[in-house]
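Let us work through a complete example step by step.
Step 1: write down the sequence.
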Amino acid sequence: MKHRLKLFVRSLWARLVAGTPLGAWTDRRTPRRLTILAGHCVTCDEHNGFLPKDMKIDGAKLTALLHRLAQHCDLVTVEEGLRRLATGEAGRSMVALTMDDGYKDNRVALLPLLQELGVPATIYLESAPLDAGRVNWSHKYFAALDKTSPEGFATRYLAGSKDEVTRAKLANIVAGGEREVYLMKRVLKYDADPADRDRTIDELYRELGGDEAELRRTLYMNWDDVRDLHEAGIELGGHTVHHHVLATLSAADQRREVSAGRESIQRALGSRAVSFAYPFGRSWDWNRDSIAAARDAGFENAVTTHAGTNAAATPPFELKRLMIDEDADTALLVCEARGGFEWLRGFGLDLSE
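Step 2: predict the structure and record it as tokens.
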């Protein structure tokens, strides 16, 4: 009941701020801010049709959203937005569009959209698909589900895995039958032995007729695509090599994942990446070692996936972002960008998350 009430109040407040002069009032009464949007893909069935809808946003919806935000805010890259905040050059508040992982649609669908609108973006690159043609386990998971049912996936995984703890948890999920796809992914992400999980999903995917090389070509950009983005003025940032949950790695392994990803971008583009995105991005997915790894690798800032907006005083390696997908609520995003939720935070009330 309490959660439903919070959602109702949040929605009502967002619509008041987004659709009335109240938005101009909250904007004037809160510090200049950088609101960072976080997505993955522009819907493009040829390249990402098998991915879940919470990883995609329709091109027309994204266009309308950016048009709406541009009425009140400057659209910038993460680097430019932080620079303006630091120097006091932010005449208006700002919005930065970011996309994680480096998918093919970022080149074939997103770039033309951005060029038509005349706005920039920041894209965070996972380097293993670019350098080694490797696709991480989570994408094979969704690709496998496209070829079978959740029950079929679980049955095959249970037959191939030697990880008894994970087997027991997956068996319980199948028996319960609720939110299977999400819950199975959560178990595989946080509870499974990584080596056993990767081996089992590789074998399972091949058994279903999957081809990792073809999946990589279909789903991810190559370096030529990335160079096209770079030449078009898109900011390219780091997102590790293999997209591991950093908090599950040792400090030394985190440093290797983060620094090697940045070095790969620098070799390919001849320019340094200054912005980093923690894989998955929740506070339990990264830790103080992750911040140190990003800073030591030469990054100047890092983004999370916790909701909120960013001011000049926001810690640069704990930047907040608002997730966008097919179900994105424009009013909520406009409210955040116009300082509506930030004004409430001044009274100790946080409705954004």
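Step 3: interpret the result. The mean pLDDT is 95.
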